[in-house]
Design a protein that fits this description.
29% of the residues lie in helices and 27% in strands. The chain is built from 7 helices and 10 strands.
């Protein structure tokens, strides 16, 4: 991973970025819709960051939630929030690539984890690692950078949504995709890496998953006062993110 979330104020900036309107209106809505009914479920949030989705999973009815992240600072922020508003969530510092003892979760989720795989070998490590958290029949749901970005001609200007995307001259395995997220008083740069959609499907199948499905993000149906729905056209017609769902065989 090219960014160290333990350095400086990066973790705090990442937390602030979750407040952007496109997060709540599109990303959070689409992710939680795809996750579905959580009542009574045992759930793990992989690469949980400061717990943005982890808390929502618990609030949506999950019976038991574990969140882990490779960044110690992110977990510090998550635990601080848990102390302020206790929800019974367990947070750990852990690497998604680690082969933990077999767990029995009903659901594993990961927002913006697989985008850090620089090649298919590293992606395979992640997929085998996350498979260890799920019982047979358990689902995995993730949101990640859209591999089809390189097919958008021209690439839309996403600045009105609070971020910019910079691509390499061409698509190749591990090609950098730079997200520049504009905050109120600073900017945060996060580098992701390109892999074709077929690489994800292969990695999941070889890690023991089936029913691989891809979904496009959706706009939350509840309009807000003064909404201009055309404002979201660039995001929805050339989505910078996709969602993937699959099931452990």
């Amino acid at each position: 991973m090219s960014i160290d979330y333990n350095q400086g104020q990066i973790a705090e900036q990442y937390k602030q970025a979750k407040e952007q309107l496109c997060r709540s209106r599109i990303e959070t809505y689409s992710f939680m819709k795809r996750i579905g009914d959580l009542r009574g479920k045992k759930v793990v949030d992989m690469a949980c960051g400061e717990g943005y989705f982890t808390r929502r999973l618990r609030q949506a009815g999950a019976a038991h939630v574990v969140g882990f992240d490779i960044s110690e600072r992110m977990i510090e922020l998550a635990r601080a929030q848990e102390k302020i508003d206790p929800l019974g969530i367990e947070y750990r510092v852990e690497d998604a690539r680690a082969l933990v003892p077999q767990q029995d979760c009903d659901l594993a989720v990961a927002a913006w984890l697989l985008v850090y795989a620089r090649d298919q070998a590293e992606l395979a490590q992640m997929c085998h690692g996350l498979a260890r958290w799920l019982k047979p029949g358990g689902r995995f749901v993730t949101v990640l950078t859209n591999p089809d970005l390189y097919s958008f001609h021209p690439l839309p200007d996403y600045r009105k949504y609070g971020f910019e995307l910079t691509l390499a001259d061409r698509a190749f395995e591990g090609a950098p995709i730079l997200w520049t997220i504009h905050l109120d008083d600073s900017s945060l740069e996060i580098e992701n890496y390109y892999l074709p959609q077929a690489a994800y499907e292969t990695a999941f199948r070889e890690a023991g998953f089936r029913d691989f499905k891809v979904y496009l993000p959706e706009l939350a149906p509840e309009p807000q006062v003064g909404d201009d729905l055309q404002y979201w056209d660039d995001f929805l017609n050339a989505p910078p993110a996709i969602l993937i769902e699959c099931v452990r065989a």
